[in-house]
Amino acid sequence: MSTSTPQTTTVGNIDDEILAFTAGKDLVLDLQLAEADCIGSAAHVTMLSRMPVQPPVLTPDEAAAVRAELAKVLERVRAGDFEIVPADQDVHLAVERTLTETLGDLGKKIHTGRSRNDQVAVDLRLFGKQRLLDLMEDTALLATALTTFGEKHVKLPMVGRTHMQPAMPSSVGLWATSHAEAALEDLESLRHVFTLNDQCPLGAAAGYGVPLPIDRQLTSDLLGFARPIHNVSHAINARGKLEYQILQAMGQLMITVSRIAQDLMLYTLPEFGYFRIPKAFGTGSSIMPNKNNPDVLELLRSKAALVLGHGQAVGMILHAAPGGYNRDLQDTKEPFLEGLAITRASVRILARCVEGLDVNPERLRNAFDGGVFATDAALAKVAEGMPFRDAYHYVKAHLDELDQADPDEAIALKTHLGGTAGLDFSLYRTRIHQSMEHVRGARDHFETTTAKLFR
Ligand code: ARG
After folding, report:
1. Best substitution site from 32, 111, 119, 120 to test ligand 1's pocket, by max atoms within 8 Å of Cβ?
2. Quick one: which of 252, 257, 224, 250 has its CA closest to 132?
3. Average pLDDT over residues 24-49
4. Tens of pLDDT, residues 327-344
């Protein structure tokens, strides 16, 4: 293709040290956004070609030519064959350079009516959408693993604890589904941030719109977003704040993950022996031949700390950010991308661990001492008509009489809603099913809509 001016996409000053400092890890991190960048650009040029201006910025044929090139870039990205060089600074200029190398002047037109500010924001949302869908699916699978384990052992007694001390009769079913329910609530938080994320910032440009008749609704529709973000300045200011919200939702989930891991570490200690984690989840020691350590579970605790810390880092970058784009925002990228990756990996590995959990019914039942039945015994007296405080003192004075109590009978007596014998497993299954359906529908919509861009 013939060109009239030099093929350069270089913007700003060039000083190697300053360039390296300002680009930071973008040369590497942005590779994760390259696919989204191509998809976003395909929608943008399609919109430009339909813009009612004379002469057109891009004709429909020219837009088709750009989309065809973008499809090739997309293939290279997927094959791991796409590179961002230092002079590019980031993926946005790397894609523009690549298009300009092959398409000449046409490549230089694609940035009409947009800025890297709205471009990176849309890239992060397209990428975030797919990763959130993956994460929601994996969280539903974790909830499934916990529910299945709980249902299988619904009648298996387990000491319930307060202050970590033996407290009242409980069951493996109650323990497992308490965590399933927490994961399902965390899934609600993920769904909330998914909805916030599902808005298109494109067309905001530098944050103040452009004096061209761009169609922001069209770009949003072409990319499968629920709607455009209305206010163009908010579209830019929302960068980082959205990442913070997503990290907070993931932080909630990681708290659940980490607490399950902590429980498992306790209940698999030789002194407890309630559960056994699958062999593959233990590691040995380089010096102590006897060791089988729960490294995976320990790492889940530290991963939770990392995700919570990443959220904190983004919040700190954001809390005093002046309005409009500031380069500080670039530094929210790494904690966000890392938080997404860590959370998903953690949820998946924990689900596998739960799926392979083994129980030791004998150790679980033997852990019941008489005291665990004390409150139930007092309440039995209440049922016979004794005032509770009198019953409490009576039982306290006769604790030795409780040694013969039966854990299996005790957990069968709590038939009320949500008790050991009142758990509604279909409630969990229904919520899991609804989440899966939501993920499936959203993924289908995204994939079919964006695939049309390249047809
Ligand atoms: N790499 C940049 C980031 O992640 C892209 C936006 C650059 N915009 C700018 N005005 N310098 O924030």
Report:
1. 120
2. 250
3. 97
4. 999 999 999 999 999 999
Give 47-77 pLDDT, tens digit per residue.
999 999 999 999 999 999 999 999 999 999 9
How far away, in angstroms, is 117 Cα from ligand 1 center? 6
State percent of the chain over pLDDT 90. Answer: 92
State mean pLDDT over 317-324.
95
Indicate which residue's Cα is closest to atom 11 of ligand 1: 327
Averaged confidence pLDDT in the chain: 95
The CATH architecture assigned to 117-366+422-444 reads Up-down Bundle (1.20)
Which residues are identified as catalytic?
Answer: 163, 285
289 pLDDT higher than 90: no
Whether 333 lines ligand 1, by a CB cut-off of 6 Å, is yes
Q: Which residue has the tokens 């695939």?
A: 451
Q: How high is the pLDDT of residue 5?
A: 46
Which 3-state string (H, E, C) describes 135-172? HHHHHHHHHHHHHHHHHHCCCCEEEEEECCEEEEEEEH
Domain residue spans in the chain? 16-112, 117-366+422-444, 370-404
Pocket test for ligand 1, best of 330, 336, 337 (most atoms within 8 A of CB): 330
CA distances, 302 to each of 258, 293, 395 (Å): 8, 15, 43
CATH class in words for 16-112: mainly alpha
Please write the tens of the pLDDT for every residue from 130-142. Answer: 999 999 999 999 9
For residues 132, 151, 275 and 164, what is the CA-based torsion angle, rounded to 10 degrees? 80
The residue whose CB lies within 8 Å of the most ligand 1 atoms, and thus the one to mutate among 90, 95, 202, is 90
What is the share, in percent, of the chain residues with pLDDT greater than 70?
Answer: 97
Q: How many Å lie between the centroid of ligand 1 and the Cα of residue 408? A: 62
Cα 206 versus chain centre, distance: 28
Question: Measured from the CA of 327, which atom of ligand 1 is nearest?
Answer: 12
CB atoms within 10 A of CB 424: 11
Q: What share of the chain is helix, strand, coil (3-state, %, to 5)?
A: 65, 5, 30
Q: How far is the CA of 328 from the centre of ligand 1 (A)?
A: 9
Say how many Å lie between the CA of residue 307 and the centre of ligand 1: 24
Res 290: pLDDT: 84
Q: Does any ligand 1 atom lie closer than 6 A to the CB of residue 120?
A: yes
Whole-number Å distance, alpha carbon 89 to ligand 1 midpoint, is 9
* Beta partners for residue 227, in sequence order: 199
Determine if ligand 1 sits within 6 Å of the CB of residue 329: yes
Mean pLDDT over residues 70-94, rounded?
A: 95
